[in-house]
Amino acid sequence: MRKAGVVLALFLVLSFVAMHPVGAYPGWVKEGAYLKYRASGYYPEIEVDYMHGGRLFVIMGSSVQVSFRILKVENGKALVRATVYMNGTEDEPVQVQYPISSGVKGFWNENSIIRTENYTDYGYTEVNLLNLTISGEYYIDLNRGWVYGPNGEAYGHTVLWNGLKVNDTFAIYNGSDVRISGVEMANVSMKTYYGLFDAPNIILRASPVNVPHGKAVFHGIYNERSDVCISFVGFPVPDLEAIGIKGFLAFDRNAIVKDEDMTSEKLGYVNGMWAWGVVLSETNVFKISPEGGSSYWAYGIVGGVIFLIVALIVFKLFRE
After folding, report:
1. How far apart are CA 279 and CA 265, in angstroms?
2. What pLDDT shows up at residue 68?
3. Burial, 147: exposed, middle or buried (Cβ in 10 Å; 0-12, 13-18, 19+)?
4. Which of 97, 195, 217, 258 is least crowded, fewest Cβ atoms below 10 Å from its Cβ?
5. Are 278 and 220 in contact (CB under 8 A)?
6. How far is residue 186's CA from residue 265's CA, in Å, rounded to a whole number?
7. What is the pLDDT of residues 206-226, one digit of tens each?
8. How many CB atoms lie within 10 A of CB 55?
9. In 102-179, which residue ranges form alpha helices assigned H by DSSP?
10. What global pTM score does this model have?
11. What share of the chain in percent tops pLDDT 70?
């Protein structure tokens, strides 16, 4: 009888573990995986607020590309490199503005400078560039999905995959928790520059925050089957905050126009509509995980097998 009691206790523990997996994350999270997003708009409606050397730089332009590449996965952590790239022309350059000050060390490529102007009446310097790259590395704790900077500071849940529900803490911004205020299932397919993502697609919305030049609200769209972020917009974005970006506003104007045309005769979501914000344009995650699947399924299968085996053992012992 004591033996049966021990097995019963084991049964309960293993069943709990099976039904509450620790460290569940998408199956595509492996070294070499990458996701790239892009947006183009009117000039200069795209804005990036970047903290560098203790100073805030306001960067404006008409196009942006954002990429995330997993450099290493080990010891329950993923090392990720995030890169924000903005491209301009002489007529529509990338503008970098900052308060007039001596001793400012630029983070841009000197060869990309078109001109530099001081607007003394308004108290700021403006550097016009042909292009600009901001890049940095951070960690994702795969047990929680949380983003940490190189110094260990926590920024919130990664935007690269889902796993959040209403009232969950999404981000820590200026010392305060930013929570998920809404989770909506859109039972329609959505287009991206990468391709079409079948329904359902999940839309996350966070509570608003104050950014350097107003208020911002984060929205993220996730394909439920693949657990991949297919677009995001607004702020905060923990993955970008970890590399010094304090504000990010980018809408793909092309996607907005196409959505307006598609939905003009029908309110709400429609099949084939475009995801909005910065939109997924390139990735290899479906080669890494062909089904585009998530490891949550694997945990469920393993848990089910453990549950069945232990149940049979317990049943046999109690029959004896």
Report:
1. 24
2. 98
3. buried
4. 195
5. no
6. 18
7. 999 988 777 889 999 999 999
8. 12
9. none
10. 0.84
11. 81
